[in-house]
Amino acid sequence: MSTQHTESERTAGESEERIDSAWTNYEFEGDAKISATDVNVHYGEEHALKNIDLDIPEKSVTALIGPSGCGKSTFLRCLNRMNDRIKSARVDGSVELDGEEIYQDGVNLVELRKRVGMVFQQPNPFPKSIRDNVSYGPRKHGDIDTGLLSRLLGRGDDETEDELVERALRQAALWDEVSDRLDDNALGLSGGQQQRLCIARCLAVDPEVILMDEPASALDPIATAKIEDLIEDLAEDYTVVVVTHSMQQAARISDQTAVFLTGGELVEYGDTDQIFENPESQRVEDYITGKFG
Ligand SMILES: Nc1ncnc2c1ncn2[C@@H]1O[C@H](COP(=O)(O)OP(=O)(O)O)[C@@H](O)[C@H]1O
Ligand SMILES: [Mg+2]
What we know:
Elements: E1 32-43, E2 46-57, E3 61-65, H1 72-78, E4 89-97, E5 100-101, H2 109-115, E6 116-119, H3 130-140, H4 148-153, H5 157-171, H6 175-178, H7 191-203, E7 209-213, H8 221-234, E8 239-243, H9 247-253, E9 256-261, E10 265-271, H10 272-277, H11 282-288
Parallel strand pairs: 3-8, 3-9, 6-7, 7-8
Antiparallel strand pairs: 1-2, 1-4, 4-5, 9-10
Helix pairs in contact: 3-7, 5-7, 7-8
The chain binds adenosine-5'-diphosphate (ADP) and magnesium ion.
Adenosine-5'-diphosphate binds at residues 43, 46, 48, 66, 68-74, 86, 88.
């Protein structure tokens, strides 16, 4: 084992290996929904992500895996410019959504984050009713009209809102559990229900991409299984990018897997079966077989 890298740069047990760019060259049919090119992120002096090139196919599940601190969350936040909110963060490179650069002047960040929604590790519903949690986004974005359209269609505002709330809760596989208590406070739900509510809140504004950062890691196995089933269903209509520290979860739910390793490098990216059964990188194999991380 080489001593070129200090302990702090390598996870204990991780061997030295030159990265071959062919390992991240994943060919898929169709256009990329998201295309990241030469993305670098610094937090102050710390170089947290290095030269990431990653194309994400639409309507599928892409898993981002790797040991803690390797930059998975940082990369996820690049995809809807959430790092803009972190003062010390500097993002260089290009991220295109449907071929349009999101890091250019004039991009409306509210609109971007509506198209590219995010679900976090800790369910974070608002301390409001279940209904209000779902309708909050559309209200903010003005999708629930101020009455004119409803009057023209001969129906009330509430009906429009009710339809939207039901649609999003059904999509998030939560409707049957909450339909009789929509006005109850969301904080009274279980953790797993709260997380599905957060997914419903995200779906309510009609996103195209859903970013999920360890969405099940705070949940028990049954609630986790529900989230995993939901993720697979969502990928029929949405592009889902999910960070997980659970390799089993990545193997179960994703179509393609990107492996980040210590130092903020993308080491291998490919079909999930190939990554788990026949990785090209020795370090990825060591990681997957539990030799480090
Ligand atoms: N808000 C932040 N400010 C400063 N450094 C950060 C911040 N977020 C992450 N980092 C650093 O960037 C590196 C990657 O972190 P992160 O993206 O959270 O990794 P992961 O999600 O893979 O655990 C880590 O060294 C971490 O300490
Ligand atoms: Mg993280």
